[in-house]
Amino acid sequence: MQDTIERSIAISAPLDRVWDLVTEPGWWVPTDEPVQAERKPGSVVVRESEKWGRFPVEVVDLKPKTYAAFRWASTFPGAELETGKTTLIEFTLEPGTDAVTVSVRESGFAGLDATPEQKSQGFESNTDGWRMELDSLRTRAED
To answer: What pTM was estimated for this model as a whole?
Structure first.
């Protein structure tokens, strides 16, 4: 069972703009209604949509303009943030001369309290999902 998804994308936008978008807790989770969230470690926001379900997202760590980490239970829609149900999402930002490189690393799939099929499905779904979400992030940042 693979444990970690890693992806990167170059975004031609100011670092401040990219940081603002990346640090919105759960920005990658579609919602039916806008969500207000505190951007500080320990805060939790619930993102919800009729199509995708309910997903609490916890802010784990923020290091200004370089690193943001969140925890969520993507394989268990509707579940609370409990040990054995969550993966860790880490974003790293690296400014360059023409663009900001945003890297995402989601880990913890192998340790989920789930069947091998559920783990594999969650991993595959999020592998495809991160491609789409990073493209969406670039579009939003560059507009």
So the answer is: 0.95
